[in-house]
Amino acid sequence: GGGPRLTETPDTIQLTYEMGRIAGLYLAEGTVCLRSTEPRTPSNVRFAVHEREVQRTLDWLAPYSDYYSSTHVAANKDSKTRVVIVYGKAFATFISRLCGRAKDKHFPKGWWNTNPEFVRGIVHGYLAGDGHSSRDMCRVSVASIRVSLIISLRDALAALGYGWSTIRYQEGGNNYGRNCKDIWI
User: Which of 65, 117, 147, 156 is deepest in the core (most CB within 10 A)?
Assistant: First the structure.
């Protein structure tokens, strides 16, 4: 597909807090795109974030620049959403294998057997992507169309000693002036 080739990428990636944060952000806001010339082969990872979160996302990715060839930020007209695109088959394949893609997204397999800092990073990244808190309430809420992610997040929060979260189902429909899917909060 052209572009620079990564000749010396590391063989392993340590499951650190920082890597967990990227995995969590991917679970909340990411997608792995496939190559059009090689079916089922990942080509890049995209993070859809608010315009004020672009630099934070790039900063979180920077320590892993040995794993990807380049990044690009794309903007849609009349939208505050920006797409941070991370190019590189190696990185896209790694993220896809670690957390799945599209409808099959999941917490990393065996996350409960990894170190607590990696899990804490996943929680931080996920909440940074899909979390919401308000000044008048002492809670953080997260909404997802994937119930398995919400259950895994609840389990991770409990395993880290933050407490047991409740999960509420909200049926899809015409909400906020748009057609919404079923969600779990």
Answer: 156
pLDDT of residue 1: 42
All residues at 6 or more sequence positions from 65 whose CB lies less than 8 Å from its CB, including other chains:
none
What is d(CA 151, CA 67) in angstroms, rounded to the nearest whole number? 30
Tokens of 91: 């990185």
Q: To which residue do tokens 């899909």 refer?
A: 130
At residue 10, the pLDDT reads 62
Model-level pTM greater than 0.85? yes
**How many residues does this entry show for the chain?**
185
Instruction: Give the distance, in angstroms, between the CA of residue 106 and the centroid of all CA atoms in the same chain.
Output: 10
Strands 30-34 and 183-184: unpaired
Token pair 């967990």 is at which residue?
A: 20
Residue for token pair 């899809």: 172
Would you say 149 and 104 are in contact if contact means Cβ atoms under 8 Å apart?
Answer: no
Cα atoms in the Cβ-side hemisphere of radius 13 Å centred on 77 = 0
41 token code pair = 């082969």
Token pair 């929060």 is at which residue?
A: 157
32: β partners: 45
pLDDT (tens digit, 9 = 90+) per residue, 138-162?
Answer: 778 898 889 999 999 999 999 999 9
